[in-house]
Write a structure and sequence with these properties.
It is a single chain. By secondary structure, this protein is of the alpha+beta class. It folds into three domains: 5-58 and 174-253 and 417-468, FAD/NAD(P)-binding domain, CATH 3.50.50.60; 99-171 and 255-412, D-Amino Acid Oxidase, Chain A, domain 2, CATH 3.30.9.10; 481-609, Orthogonal Bundle (Helicase, Ruva Protein, domain 3). 39% of the residues lie in helices and 18% in strands. The chain contains 20 helices and 20 strands. The chain has helices spanning 5-17, 29-40, 77-93, 117-131, 145-151, 173-186, 245-248, 315-328, 370-384, 390-398, 438-457, 481-493, 499-509, 513-517, 533-545, 551-558, 561-564, 566-584, 588-605, 608-619; strands at 20-25, 45-49, 64-65, 99-100, 103-108, 141-144, 160-166, 169-170, 190-193, 195-202, 208-215, 221-231, 256-264, 274-277, 285-291, 294-298, 302-303, 341-347, 418-422, 428-432. The strands form four sheets. Strands 1, 2, 9, 10, 11, 12, 19 and 20 form an eight-stranded mixed beta sheet that branches. Helix 2 packs across helix 11. The radius of gyration is 25 Å and the shape is globular.
Length: 620
């Protein structure tokens, strides 16, 4: 089933002419999750996104599906239990995307450290029990200082005690979004990118019954009629209908900005994802992740009040991260000139909540008393030996006493918790949350949507098990990922594609790999092209079946080329534009516009504006 620019035009017409049951506003991971579940339940669903799918927050994460070990520094057992269970669900419905990749957490003899070796082992054992990986190859273990240094020779050795190794998952955030969107489309949903909700529409009773929308490509404005509307616009959630906030029951948001920087793996060598205290005395923790021959690191948590559509990496962000990285990897001596790519994103945090998904902070951020802490550790140890019940652990947690309580929350202490609200005008708002929780958040929203459709319109919908609703590309046995990927690699190699490139396609497209390579007779065979067959097949599939409309869509969100292969793009970017121009029949004017857009995005991703400013300062 095609899902292209032509499909988009048809879907815009359908949204104008058809009265749908549910309109989803926002094409990030939350909206995509709602759309796929609603369509699977037989609800006539439309979705509009004012940019490309996943262009906002959902392509700018740390690109991990976390298990939440950091929550155990405040012993929030319930959160960790929920998170690891949901992570397993996501891996089951999109088995080609999240992949297990154990995390290394080095421990230093430092009073400000989140864990010491003993408390880390207790936390990891509890984590494994909650995750159900005890006795498996993914079970945690500790290593001593010497082994840490063997693994990461460049790591800071002063006061290093050892490290823990525990299960976590790497992720491709934007691919997870597009695969949900494609599945929703295949199930009958009307999915459209680059259409913006301009204003709500109401009936005579003041009930929301659609939106006025604008096609961002043509400028045309039109009305979309829908029985129900759900707002899943992330950081924009309290801005989109702000003028009717009193009846919409929209929670206040407090977005924070997080950034990540990419360097070549030879400049910062890490064998596996590594997670450590920033060392800056601010309670933050830093991720360092190897990927596709590069190493990226982040993140920051700073309140953001700028342009939501276009957050940028600023010099103070870079200074902070480089200082933290160079402190932990002193031989790296990374500078601004080493940065090959970057990204900045907003987190849709709900104001007033009291803990941070990224940093495990909380309203009670003071030191736990020695007596309470010792009692808790003893109880958890007994629990792990089956000598104490979960209720005993929960009671010990509730008895924790802190030395101080903060009444003002820093940006890194605001919760990633989600909120589902229904206003007097029946506007449904689903806000907050994180990628790991997207399926669960959507399931909660779907229960409300189904009930409202039944109560107000007498519309019944089907029951679905969203824990087994596999997304596009993920239609295979999630317990047999390695063998499945090997099979898709083999059939791709048989088309004349080298092993490494065949594996890349298999990992990117999963069960859609046969569809990708079936286009081999449709792609151009220009012998002068700088693009190999794998790239041409990938571009053709992205344009015809993933609603890819620009080179930036392809290079930044359908693939990660712009982030992890920036050094190779100079040689092939013109060929990529030419390939897309032929498929999409661009005029010379359109082609020139696309070239300009790509150059601007590449320059920003490379941080040219900061590098030039630094150069001027040195010259001056």
């Amino acid at each position: 089933m095609t899902f292209s620019g032509e499909t988009r035009s048809k879907n815009v017409k359908r949204l104008q002419n058809e009265n749908i049951d549910l309109l989803v506003l926002g094409g990030g991971i939350t909206g995509a999750g709602v759309a796929v579940q609603a369509t699977a339940a037989g609800i006539k669903t439309g979705l509009i996104e004012m940019q490309d799918f996943a262009e906002g927050t959902s392509s700018r994460s740390t690109k991990l599906v976390h298990g939440g070990l950091r929550y155990l520094k405040t012993f929030d057992v319930e959160v960790v239990s929920d998170t690891v269970k949901e992570r397993a669900v996501v891996q089951g419905i999109a088995p080609h995307i999240p992949r297990p990749f154990p995390m290394l957490l080095p421990i230093y003899d430092d009073s400000s450290s989140t864990f010491n070796m003993f408390s880390l082992k207790v936390a990891m054992d509890l984590y494994d029990r909650l995750a159900g990986v005890e006795g498996t190859k993914y079970a945690n273990y500790t290593i001593d200082k010497d082994e840490v240094i063997q693994r990461e020779p460049g790591i800071k050795q002063d006061k290093l005690l050892g490290a823990g190794v525990y299960l976590d998952y790497v992720n491709n955030d934007s691919r997870l979004v597009i695969e949900n969107i494609k599945e929703a489309h295949a199930l009958g949903g009307i999915m459209v990118s680059r259409v913006k909700a301009v204003a709500p529409e109401y009936d005579v009773d003041g009930t929301i019954n659609g939106v006025k929308a604008r096609d961002e490509l043509t400028g045309e404005e039109f009305i979309i009629h829908a029985k129900l509307v759900i707002n899943t616009t992330g950081p924009w959630v309290d801005k989109i209908f702000a003028h009717n906030e009193d009846k919409s029951n929209i929670p206040r948001m407090r977005p924070t900005k997080g950034i990540h920087l990419v360097v070549d793996e030879e400049r910062l060598v890490v064998p596996q994802p590594t997670y450590f205290d920033s060392g800056m005395g601010d309670g933050r923790m830093i991720f360092v992740v190897p990927r596709e021959g590069k190493t990226y690191f982040g993140t920051t948590d700073t309140d953001y009040h700028g342009n939501y559509r276009h957050p940028r990496v600023e010099q103070e962000d870079v200074t902070y991260l480089l200082k933290a990285i160079n402190k932990h990897f002193p031989n790296a001596a990374l500078t601004l000139t080493d940065i090959e790519a970057s990204w900045a994103g907003l987190r849709p945090l709900i104001a007033g909540n009291s803990s941070s998904d990224y940093n495990g902070g909380g309203a009670n951020t003071g030191k736990v008393s020695e007596e309470s802490f010792a009692h808790l550790l003893k109880t958890v140890a007994s629990f792990n030996r089956n000598e104490a019940a979960r209720a005993d652990v929960e009671q010990a947690i509730s008895q924790l006493k802190t030395a101080r309580v903060e009444t003002e929350l820093s940006a890194s202490q605001v919760s990633r918790g989600s909120s589902l609200d229904v206003g007097e005008n029946r506007l449904i708002t689903l806000s907050g949350g994180k990628i790991t929780d997207y399926r669960k958040m959507a399931a909660g929203a779907l229960r409300v949507i189904k009930k409202m459709l039944q109560d107000y319109y007498g519309i019944a919908s089907s029951e679905i098990d969203s824990k087994k609703l596999q997304v596009s590309g993920g239609h295979f046995d999630p317990t047999n990922v390695e063998d499945t990927m090997a099979f898709y690699k083999t059939i791709t190699e048989e088309k004349g594609i080298p092993e490494k490139r065949a594996l890349e396609l298999a990992n990117r497209y999963g069960s859609n790999t046969p569809r990708v390579i079936s286009n081999i007779n449709k792609v151009r065979t220009d012998k002068e092209s700088k693009l190999d067959l794998a790239e041409r097949l990938s571009i053709y599939y992205a344009v015809t079946e993933e609603m890819t409309l620009t080179p930036v869509d392809y290079l930044l969100r359908r693939t990660n080329h712009m982030l992890f292969h920036a050094d190779q793009l100079e040689a092939i970017k013109e060929a990529i534009i030419e390939e897309m121009a032929v498929i999409l029949r661009w005029s010379s004017t359109e082609k020139s516009k696309m070239q300009q857009q790509l150059e601007q995005t590449l320059a920003e991703t490379r941080l040219d504006y900061l590098k030039k400013s630094k150069q001027k300062q040195l010259i001056g």
